[in-house]
């Protein structure tokens, strides 16, 4: 496995060995602004199968295809509407994934046999350079073991996947820290399949022609990251409503409480702060790193408090609930 540390002064040449691997059927972990992805040539079915094998990912969980903003959309979509193109003009490159009818060239293994494909254009300079060097779409889920906490550093990728992949491109921690928002347009109605780093408020403010917003709730295979148990530590995890008292919970063994600078917790348990509620973007950047750290602390139970906030808080609470396999107390 090649370990490629990016030289910020010469990104294009630094990522070329990784791009060569991708062009030749390899699978490569690389940074995006959201989390680290595990990529393969989206048109190479054999390479894409290697992603599923390396992650232990079931074949009914579709992948996101990564492209450059200026590429022709007909490489990935069968067709797009005027409103979809307006949406992409405003939010690409960035952490927004659009689901739409797939182009014939996209193999069914990428979409888990579905007629629609999930596509985004990342804004991270290393991801951009890598896509430019590959000169074609790259299918990439998060670069971690299936259903485990997402990887936001190269070390997380090493810990999870090791020599099962061909290369890791290390450019330091991801900046957003949580995955992209996944949406679909049905005419002028915006369907939200996954909250993420782009807030729905930002979308509706920028897109006055969107007539309504509909939440697609529950577990669904129409979008990546929608299984009830996802982003999950190995340690038993319980989500708590904001401000919940934990005295009534019958917990055995050691407990780690994960909350915020403003949280008030009993001194009988270890407390780990995610940061301040007044800076939820900062909380997003540290969420997965914190979950991985407390998961390695040999505790018997992790209790993690929901934000109860709108905006990016919606995405954080989605990840926390799924980390807890849907178990919420309080």
UniProtKB/TrEMBL annotation:
<keyword id="KW-0067">ATP-binding</keyword>
<dbReference type="InterPro" id="IPR005145">
    <property type="entry name" value="Sua5_C"/>
</dbReference>
<keyword id="KW-0547">Nucleotide-binding</keyword>
<dbReference type="Pfam" id="PF01300">
    <property type="entry name" value="Sua5_yciO_yrdC"/>
</dbReference>
<keyword id="KW-0548">Nucleotidyltransferase</keyword>
<keyword id="KW-0819">tRNA processing</keyword>
<feature type="domain" description="YrdC-like">
    <location>
        <begin position="12"/>
        <end position="198"/>
    </location>
</feature>
<comment type="function">
    <text>Required for the formation of a threonylcarbamoyl group on adenosine at position 37 (t(6)A37) in tRNAs that read codons beginning with adenine.</text>
</comment>
<comment type="similarity">
    <text>Belongs to the SUA5 family.</text>
</comment>
<dbReference type="InterPro" id="IPR017945">
    <property type="entry name" value="DHBP_synth_RibB-like_a/b_dom"/>
</dbReference>
<dbReference type="InterPro" id="IPR010923">
    <property type="entry name" value="T(6)A37_SUA5"/>
</dbReference>
<dbReference type="Pfam" id="PF03481">
    <property type="entry name" value="Sua5_C"/>
</dbReference>
<dbReference type="InterPro" id="IPR006070">
    <property type="entry name" value="Sua5-like_dom"/>
</dbReference>
<protein>
    <recommendedName>
        <fullName>Threonylcarbamoyl-AMP synthase</fullName>
        <ecNumber>2.7.7.87</ecNumber>
    </recommendedName>
</protein>
<keyword id="KW-0808">Transferase</keyword>
<dbReference type="InterPro" id="IPR038385">
    <property type="entry name" value="Sua5/YwlC_C"/>
</dbReference>
<dbReference type="InterPro" id="IPR050156">
    <property type="entry name" value="TC-AMP_synthase_SUA5"/>
</dbReference>
<keyword id="KW-0963">Cytoplasm</keyword>
